[in-house]
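hiii so my PI (J.) wants the whole complex modelled not just the main chain, which honestly fair. so below is everything: two entries, each one labled with what it is. i double checked the lines twice but i was tired so who knows lol
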Amino acid sequence: MTETLANALLLVGSFFCLVAGIGVVRLNDVFSRMHAATKAGTLGLALICIAIMLLADTWLHLAEAVFVFLFMIASAPVGAHLIGRAAFHNYQPMDPKTQADPESEPFRHPVRLPDSSLPTSELVAEPSHKSPDDPDNG
Amino acid sequence: MVALDLVSMLLVVFLVVFKLVSGVDAYMYVAIGLALIAFLATVAFANFIDRAEGTDDD
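here's the output for the full assembly
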C-alpha cells in the first residue's frame, strides 16, 4: 500500500517537473516563465520528496527528505521573488497577454513585447482600428 | 536566469530520485548541498542583475 502510494506520488511529481520544463520552453516572457518554473517545479519536488519520506527505512533518511522538502519549499518563492524584482527593475519586456494585478501599486508601466499572437495576414488585412487618414496611423 | 533556477531544482529532484533507485546514501547529501548552493546562486545572481542598471539580461 505504501509502495503503491509512493510510486503514484513519484509519477505525479515527475509529471509536474515535466510540465515545468515545457512551460519554461514555451511561455513568452520572464514573468510567465517564472510562474511555470516556480509553481510546477516546487510542486513536483514536494511530491517526490513526500514519496521519499514514505519509502524511508531509517529516521535519518526521513529527516534528510524532510530537510530537502522544507528547504526547497522555503527557498523557491524567495528566489522567484528576487528574480522577478531584478527582471522588472531591468525593464524586461512583458508579453501583451501578461497582466499586472489591478490592485497592485501602479508605479511604472511595464515594457511590452510586440503582440505575436496576431497572424501577420490579419495585420495586413486590418491595419488598425484608427481611420486611414489619421496621421498617427503608421 | 529563470531556467537556471529550474535546472538546479530539477537537479535536486534527479539526485533524490537517483538516491531512491541506487540506494547510495551519499546522493541525498549531494542533493542537500546542491539545494543550499542553488539558493545562494539564485540570490547572488539576482542581486548582480538588479545592480547592473539597464542591461538586457534574463
